TrEMBL record:
<dbReference type="InterPro" id="IPR005843">
    <property type="entry name" value="A-D-PHexomutase_C"/>
</dbReference>
<dbReference type="GO" id="GO:0004614">
    <property type="term" value="F:phosphoglucomutase activity"/>
</dbReference>
<keyword id="KW-0119">Carbohydrate metabolism</keyword>
<dbReference type="GO" id="GO:0006006">
    <property type="term" value="P:glucose metabolic process"/>
</dbReference>
<dbReference type="InterPro" id="IPR036900">
    <property type="entry name" value="A-D-PHexomutase_C_sf"/>
</dbReference>
<feature type="domain" description="Alpha-D-phosphohexomutase C-terminal">
    <location>
        <begin position="46"/>
        <end position="118"/>
    </location>
</feature>
<protein>
    <recommendedName>
        <fullName>phosphoglucomutase (alpha-D-glucose-1,6-bisphosphate-dependent)</fullName>
        <ecNumber>5.4.2.2</ecNumber>
    </recommendedName>
</protein>
<keyword id="KW-0313">Glucose metabolism</keyword>
<keyword id="KW-0479">Metal-binding</keyword>
<keyword id="KW-0460">Magnesium</keyword>
<dbReference type="GO" id="GO:0008973">
    <property type="term" value="F:phosphopentomutase activity"/>
</dbReference>
<dbReference type="Pfam" id="PF00408">
    <property type="entry name" value="PGM_PMM_IV"/>
</dbReference>
<keyword id="KW-0413">Isomerase</keyword>
<dbReference type="GO" id="GO:0006166">
    <property type="term" value="P:purine ribonucleoside salvage"/>
</dbReference>
<dbReference type="GO" id="GO:0046872">
    <property type="term" value="F:metal ion binding"/>
</dbReference>
Amino acid sequence: MYEGLLEIFEKYGYYRESLRSLTLKGKDGAEQIANILAAFRKEPPKEIAGVEVVAIEDYLISKRTIVATGEEQTIDLPRSNVLKYHLANGSWFCLRPSGTEPKAKFYFGVRGTSLQESEELVAALENAVMAIVHQIVNV
């Protein structure tokens, strides 16, 4: 069974996902969480961890933007305060405020050619995004 799973990974890639949360309590925390999303909307990063951003999905306005052309596509899902960035290497990250806690949540997904590469890619993506977030909120 395990060998079969390894064959699948070798054929399709080693996918890795992770979640990071940033707790920001109180009224100031709620403002900081709003500021994080506002900053990513106002000045979206052109690259993350040295990898070009190719598309941005903003579920609040139901739009997917292809960065290179500016082409906009409609997202046919319920509106929500969520942003998702797609990178040229197939990686992605997503950010949103928690609906129940004083937290901003960050989701990451990558595909590597080995387990080690996928772990390195997700760590680099996490670190790059969180560095931007910490600049926004000065923590």
